[in-house]
C-alpha cells in the first residue's frame, strides 16, 4: 500500500517546508541547493513554500538576500535566474527561541498566511537542522501549538538530523519524547549516506540480479570489509566532535546501515517497512560484544600530526576547540559477526577514520578460494581470491576481481578487474545528496530513513564499546600519524585472521 500523498516520480503534493536551525550551514550548503535542483527537475509543485526558523534576528527580505548570494556559491550547477527567483519568492523567515511557546504561535500564524497566499494547503514538513538537545523541545513545542496534527489527507512530518542520541539510553528517551507527540510514520530520521546513489544501488545489485544471491552467504563469502576513510580532519567542528568520536559519528549510523544493506535478507516488497524490517533483523543478529571481546575485536585511534598527500596536517589534539589531552577517537576498527544462518562465522570488518591517506568509501566482499587448487603445479604466481568491490565514493561503481590466464604458451594466471563505472551511465545530474531524501519525505516514503527500532538496535551494538572505552582511557593517543591508515592495532585486528585491510587495488600490497 502506498502511504497517503505518495506521487512517486511526479511532483510532490503542495506543502510547506519549515527548517529549524535555518541560519546554519546545512540550509545554505545543502537544503536550499537541493530544493533548487528538485524544482529544476519538476518535482516541486507550484504550491510550495519554505519557512526558516532560527534564533538569529533576520527579516524575510534579508534572509532571501543572503540565500541569493549563497546559492551562487553552493548550487551544484549554473543558476538559472528565473528558476531561482521562483524559489526565492517562496522563502520566509520567522525568528524565535526554540523553547519559547511564542515561536510556535508565530510560526502557526505565518503558516496560515503562507498557505493562503501560496496555496500550499495544510501539509507541512518540518526539518530539524539544530543541535540535538533542541530536537525534543522543538517537537514538544510544535505539538503544544497544535502544529503536528494532520487532517483531511494533509500531512505533518518531521525530519530529524543526526546524532540521534549518544547511547542507547539517550536514544530511547529521545524516541519516547518525540513519540509522545508524533506517530512513528510522521518521523523521518535522516541518514545522508542512504541518499547516496551507490548506496541505493546496493539493493538493486543484490535483488535485481540473479547472479549474486546464490553466493551471498557463508558458503562462498570469506569475509566482508567496509571502509569509510576520510582524508579531512575535524574541520572546525571540534566542539561537536569532542562529544562524539568516530564510533558515534560514523559507525553507529552510516556504517551499520551499509552493513545491514549488505547482509539483509530479500524484503518481501520494497515498501518502507518491509525493507526496514529486514535491515533491523540484521542489526539484532549482531550480538553486542562482552567487555572481554571488545578488548580484542574493537580498536580505536587518534591522529597525531603528519602529512596527508604532501600537505602537513596538525594532530587532533591541536585542532580548534579540542582538548590538548583529548581521549576522543578519530579512528575505529571492529570485527562484527552477524549471527544468523546466512552469515554465521563470516567476519565483517568495519573501519573508519579521519586524516587517512585518502577519501574512500568501499565495501569489499572477499570470496572463498576454490575448493581445489588445480593450478598448483603451474606457474600460477600468487593465487588470489575473487573479490567484489562496491565503490561508494569518490569513485562510484562496482568491480569484480577474477583470475584469468595470461595470454601465452604456459599457464600463468593473473588478476583481471571487470569494472562498472557509474560515469558510463551518462553524466549524472549534479546533486547535493539531499534531493532524494527531501523528495521522499515530501511524498511520504520513509524507506531510506531510520525507524526507532533500528536506531536502538544500532546503539545496542555501539554502547557497550563506548562504555568500555570510557572506563579504560586510551594510554597511547595519538597512535597514528595523519596521512596513514590508522594505528598498528587495526592491522593486528585483521591480520590475526590471516587477512589484510583492502586499501584499493592501487595500494594493496599483499591483501588477502
Ligand atoms: C557526517 C559526519 O555524518 O558524515 C562527518 O558527521 C563526516 O564527520 C561526514 O565527515 C562524511 O560524509 P561524506 O558524505 O562526505 O562521506
Kindly report the name of the CATH homologous superfamily of the largest domain.
Dihydrodipicolinate Reductase, domain 2
Main sheet? 8 strands, mixed
Poorly predicted regions: 1-7
Number of helices: 14
Name every ligand kind in the structure. 6-O-phosphono-beta-D-glucopyranose
- In the CATH classification, which architecture of the largest domain applies? 2-Layer Sandwich
Distance between the termini: 46 Å
Strand order across the largest sheet: 8-12-13-7-14-15-16-17
Rg from alpha-carbon coordinates: 24 Å
**Helix-residue proportion:** 25-40%
Domain module count: 2
From the helix content, strand content and strand pairing, which structural class follows?
Answer: alpha/beta
The top level CATH class name of the largest domain: Alpha Beta
Shape: globular
> What's the number of extended β-strand segments?
18
Arithmetic mean pLDDT:
92
Into which percentage range does the β-strand content fall? 15-25%
CATH topology of the largest domain: Dihydrodipicolinate Reductase, domain 2
What does this protein look like?
The chain has 512 residues and is α/β, with parallel strands linked by helices. The chain folds into two domains: 15-161, NAD(P)-binding Rossmann-like Domain (Rossmann fold); 194-495, 2-Layer Sandwich (Dihydrodipicolinate Reductase, domain 2), CATH 3.30.360.10. Helices cover 33% and strands 20% of the residues. It is built from 14 helices and 18 strands. The strands form four sheets. The protein has an eight-stranded mixed beta sheet with strand order 8-12-13-7-14-15-16-17, with helices on both faces. A hairpin with a 3-residue loop joins β15 and β16. The radius of gyration is 24 Å and the shape is globular.
